[in-house]
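Box 3.1. Reading complex inputs
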Amino acid sequence: SQQGEEDPQALSIQEGENATMNCSYKTSINNLQWYRQNSGRGLVHLILIRSNEREKHSGRLRVTLDTSKKSSSLLITASRAADTASYFCATFTSGTYKYIFGTGTRLKVLA
Amino acid sequence: DSGVTQTPKHLITATGQRVTLRCSPRSGDLSVYWYQQSLDQGLQFLIHYYNGEERAKGNILERFSAQQFPDLHSELNLSSLELGDSALYFCASSVGGAGTGAGEQYFGPGTRLTVT
């Protein structure tokens, strides 16, 4: 299975609601990042959290990291229709120089 | 606009053929990464180059090869193409990648390859 697996696979919410996505991984990491992808387009970096950090905020985004559980969550508050996209977590391990992307969560925000 | 450029945007070719995808990283970025995204496999890491040297290999087939040139642009060569190679191929770049300093990646718009 993949290093990073997002949960849920798909999420549909109303505009203004909060959206929470989870990511689990298997090995030790240096950092974990979240990316957004609009349909068929390149990924856009949202936020990076290092292994020694537990929580990070950026605008309407809040990311948490629990290295003991090897999991992270992305919270988008007060969602907007423009937030409709797929969201991926990616882990980086310096020993391997690899970024491993999860399977993604498809978020749909209904206006 | 991420600053990463990829050419061509679309490529349609027949099975058995060979193609070359090109990527120019953001100015100042030393690392280039290649990914394959298909509906059934998700986003798969293929290979990472840092300042002209191969750093890591992922799920890259032997039919595929890549290189990074002295001007830091990179090419991904796909040969003996099969129907299953049809996918979006993304290139990404980052400043670091040589160690714990690896940070965010900037993705290009991708090349959509269709093998018929």
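In summary: The interface with chain A takes residues 2, 4, 33, 35, 42-43, 45, 48, 50, 55-56, 58, 88, 90, 92, 97-100, 102-110, 112 of chain B (CB under 8 Å).
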